[in-house]
Specification:
- The chain has 142 residues and is mostly helical.
- The protein contains 4 helices and 2 strands; from the N terminus they run H-H-E-E-H-H.
- It starts with 19 loop residues before the first helix and ends with a helix.
């Protein structure tokens, strides 16, 4: 989906802090082809890409370390490598991620780690670890 936004008159569509990344993505998309990669892709460290649909996104050199990839759809993304999803120091969390064929990774490998990460990263939303665990269990496939 491409939105036509005048880059000189960009008005954020989302105002709370949790959606700042969406504003950046929408703005980058309005500037044209490959802008996502040039402006946003390399800065996805710790991004929450839950439920993101990245059709035709060029993820070459995208830093996904420490990102939360909860039901993120990568099936039609371009230039995604298994090393981007399995770095040794701080790999992204894969929880129900839809991955391209041939990466050889478990798309559900990190459900057991998700609650603690959510509680530590978003304490204003998950006051206790138990709240985060309940939220995860409601979304985790049975």
């Amino acid at each position: 989906m491409s939105l036509s936004l005048d880059p000189h008159r960009f008005i954020p569509l989302f105002t709370n802090a949790q959606n700042r990344l969406l504003n950046i993505i929408l703005y980058a998309d309005s500037l044209g082809v490959e802008t996502f990669t040039k402006q946003v892709g390399k800065h996805l460290f710790r991004a929450n890409l839950s439920n993101a649909y990245l059709e035709d996104a060029n993820l070459e050199d995208a830093n996904l370390n420490n990102s939360i990839l909860l039901k993120t759809d990568f099936r039609h993304a371009r230039n995604l490598t298994s090393s981007q999803l399995s770095s040794e120091d701080s790999p992204p969390l894969l929880c129900g991620a839809l991955l391209p064929e041939g990466l050889g990774l478990d798309p559900d490998r990190d459900w057991d780690r998700l609650a603690l990460v959510l509680h530590e990263r978003y304490p204003e939303d998950f006051n206790t670890l138990e709240e985060a665990e309940k939220w995860v269990e409601e979304r985790r496939p049975k």
